[in-house]
Each structure stands twice: as structure tokens, then as C-alpha cells.
Design a protein that fits this description.
Length: about 120
């Protein structure tokens, strides 16, 4: 796998795991806050926390298993989704912008054209 394409896939794996970890931590914060808040907020906190964990975990899994593995397996659909998320990441100033640039360079450059085929 070409270097820049490999970097894009690696960034998506890292972002996926970060997304899962942050989702679980924040979900637990919601759950604990709901429990600590008493009977009026308990159900909302628990449900909100579980929903947050599922959504963030789902996005992380999408990053890891669909995009990163798809890039490694020359899946052009994963390349397209990777480019779309790379463009969205450009708006996450400053770190997201830098990561988005690296991802787009990896998925839209000459190495990517050779890897995925024209």
C-alpha cells in the first residue's frame, strides 16, 4: 500500500478508536450525572448516556471497519466516504483541518489513483 494511502487509513483507525473512547467516557458521564441528579434526571441521564455511547461507538466503528479497512482492501466506496469525511474534518480547526488535509492528500493523490485504479 502506498505511503500516503496507508497514512489516511491509519488516521481513520486512530480517529475511530478515539471516537469510541470519547463516546464511552462521555456516555458514562451522562449516566453518572443522571444517577447523581436524583429521580427526575435519572432516566434521562441513563438513556442519554446509552444513546451517546451507541452513536459515538457507531461512528468510531464506521471509521475503523468501513473506511480504514475499505481503503486497505482497495474499496472505491470507502475511498469516496473517506474523502467526504476528510472534507468535513477541514472545518475542525485546527487539528481537524490538519488531519483532513493529510487524509485528502492520501485519498486524492497520484498514489491513491494507482492504488484504487483510475
Amino acid at each position: 500500500m502506498p505511503g500516503k494511502v496507508k497514512t489516511a487509513a491509519l488516521l481513520y483507525k486512530i480517529l475511530g478508536w478515539i471516537e469510541i473512547i470519547v463516546g464511552v467516557i462521555l456516555g458514562l458521564v451522562f449516566i453518572i450525572g443522571g444517577i447523581a441528579g436524583g429521580s427526575q434526571t435519572m432516566a434521562a441521564g441513563i438513556i442519554g448516556g446509552l444513546v451517546y455511547i451507541v452513536i459515538m461507538g457507531g461512528i468510531g466503528a464506521l471509521f475503523i471497519w468501513y473506511i480504514a479497512k475499505g481503503i486497505e482492501n482497495k474499496n472505491s466506496g470507502a475511498k469516496i466516504v473517506g474523502i467526504i469525511f476528510g472534507i468535513i474534518m477541514l472545518f475542525g480547526i485546527p487539528i481537524g483541518t490538519v488531519l483532513g488535509i493529510f487524509i485528502l492528500m492520501g485519498l486524492m493523490g497520484d498514489e491513491a489513483k494507482q492504488w484504487f485504479g483510475a
